[in-house]
Amino acid sequence: MNEVELSVPHREFETDRLAVVRVQMRIPHGIDPSPRQVYMGFANDALASVGWPLVTVTVSETIAEQKGGPFVQFIETDARCRRLGFATEIWEALNERYGGKLIGEAGTWAGYLFLKSVGVTLPEADRSYFPP
């Protein structure tokens, strides 16, 4: 079993509705042992008592060398908080922090539509391109 190295979590920044915590993660004996930045957005308002992240984003700066920019490997919004703009809010904040160069690839139709909505340039596709 692979061990996971984690940095000490710390509060990185805030958006209008999120307090964003960053942890650096590395799996030294994994397929890709390079570090990733994991950003977790917690509610910073009346929902602040919620003890889990509303949205989580994993960014690889190593893959950026191949892809042409800091690469979002994963973005997930808690099922109870979808369609409320949290993914867009954290994407826009991270994109600004990374100098407007954040990129990603879609693995699902919903992901494709999301990336298009935040301005990521993607090849044209339709729903049939993605698995059901």
Name some characteristics of this structure:
globular, 132 residues, Aminopeptidase, 7 strands, N-acetyltransferase domain-containing protein, seven-stranded mixed beta sheet, alpha+beta
Question: Would you kindly provide a written description of the structure presented here, covering whatever features stand out?
Answer:
The chain is globular, with a radius of gyration of 15 Å. It is an alpha+beta fold and 132 residues long. Strands 1, 2, 3, 4, 5, 6 and 7 form a seven-stranded mixed sheet that branches. It has helices at 62-67, 86-97, 109-117, and strands at residues 5-6, 10-14, 18-26, 36-43, 55-60, 71-77, 103-104. It has a single domain (5-129), classed as Aminopeptidase (3-Layer(aba) Sandwich), CATH 3.40.630.
Summarize the structure.
By secondary structure, the protein is α+β, with helices and mostly antiparallel strands. It contains 3 helices and 7 strands.
Principal-axes shape call = globular
Question: What is the string of helix and strand elements?
Answer: EEEEEHEHEH
Rg over CA atoms, rounded to whole Å, is 15 Å
SS strand fraction: 25-35%
CATH architecture: 3-Layer(aba) Sandwich
Distance between the first and last residues' Cα: 31 Å
Count of helix runs: 3
Q: Bin the helical content.
A: 10-25%
Overall pLDDT level: 87
How many strands?
A: 7
Q: Low-confidence parts lasting 5 or more residues at pLDDT below 50?
A: none
The assigned structural class equals alpha+beta
Oligomeric nature of the chains: single chain
Protein name: N-acetyltransferase domain-containing protein
